[in-house]
From TrEMBL, chain A:
Transmembrane segments: 20-40
Keywords: Membrane, Transmembrane, Transmembrane helix
Protein name in the entry: Protoheme IX farnesyltransferase
Keyword Membrane part of the UniProt annotation: yes
Organism: Neoroseomonas lacus
Automatic annotation (TrEMBL), chain B:
Name of this protein: Protoheme IX farnesyltransferase
One GO biological process term: heme O biosynthetic process
Name of the gene: ctaB
Keywords from the named record: Cell membrane, Heme biosynthesis, Membrane, Transferase, Transmembrane, Transmembrane helix
Task of the protein: Converts heme B (protoheme IX) to heme O by substitution of the vinyl group on carbon 2 of heme B porphyrin ring with a hydroxyethyl farnesyl side group.
Protein origin, superkingdom: Bacteria
InterPro entries referenced in this protein's UniProt entry, alphabetically: Protohaem_IX_farnesylTrfase, UbiA_prenyltransferase, UbiA_prenylTrfase_CS, UbiA_sf
Any one GO molecular-function label of the UniProt entry: protoheme IX farnesyltransferase activity
Recorded topology in the membrane: Multi-pass membrane protein
Amino acid sequence: MTPDERALFEKRRRGRNIAIGLVLVSLAILFYFIGMARLLRG
Amino acid sequence: MSDAAMEPGQGGSAPLPASYDMSEVGDWIALLKPRVMSLVVFSGLVGMLVAPGVGAMHPVLAATAILCIAVAAGAAGAINMWYDRDIDAVMRRTSKRPIPAGRIAPASALAFGIWLSVASVTVMWMATNIAAAFVLALSIAFYVFVYTMWLKRRTPQNIVIGGAAGAFPPLIGWAAVTGDVTLVPIILFAIIFFWTPPHFWSLALWAHDDYARAGVPMLPVTAGARETRRQIVIYAVLLAPIGLLPWLVGFSGPAYAVVAAVLGAMFVRHAVAVLRDRQDDTGRSLTRDAPARACFRFSLYYLFVLFAALAVDHLVFGA
């Protein structure tokens, strides 16, 4: 892998990691609100 | 230790890249067929809005149910793209999709689709009830196993029976609110079921060469354009009274009935225009399928306006 290819690979990997991180945080927030909504409505 | 002192690929721990590239995310989103998803979400939302007791549903749970319908539709779309990657590659309309274009590995797309399917059904169960989760799982299974893997490559009736997969969202939306499935959501299912063939065959008429090249037995390929035009008229004529069923069973008021009648008549008029299009001896259009394109566009408006009218009639006029 050339340095340019490696840099591109790492940029993409970093982008993918950020996207997965955002999805996981969103899921955690979603689960929190689902739990609260179910508790509040009994 | 300075990052600048290290070169990538020269051993040691690699430096952090200075920036990131999110272009790949767009490809993953494209796997979810976002354009198809919008109609699925809309019909699921209407199924939910007209269900009795929707006012008592917590908005977070209602929004989660819609999110699950959207994600499940996308997941089924991703698995469909994984299975159909060979025919997508030879069809002009689909050759730039992420898998045939080589931007996403087939196995990754399959894993993505399966993961999202399981997640959407599980979250639907958590947020609403088991009936909605079951119908959601059934809709994914129907689209993947019945339409994509069984019917699509075997019979020209593929989208007639397989069209049921796209008709599930109102059932899911209704079940998410009520926990059951009764006559009204089944009528909404029937409307989409009978709407799908004339909608899809209008597209297939002008995408005929693509389907023929890919060996997909769409009706224009197996039975010819002339028979397809006849079938479009038959289904449009059948759809018109089915669109009136919510009013006939007393679920909707006269405002909805007027809208449904006008839309039904307009759909039949578009279908007849497709039938009467100037054709060669084989039934192929001499007008670049202008009436079929117009019929396809109208079919999208038809479903959107009909379902919007149902929701408005129910929520505003309290029918």
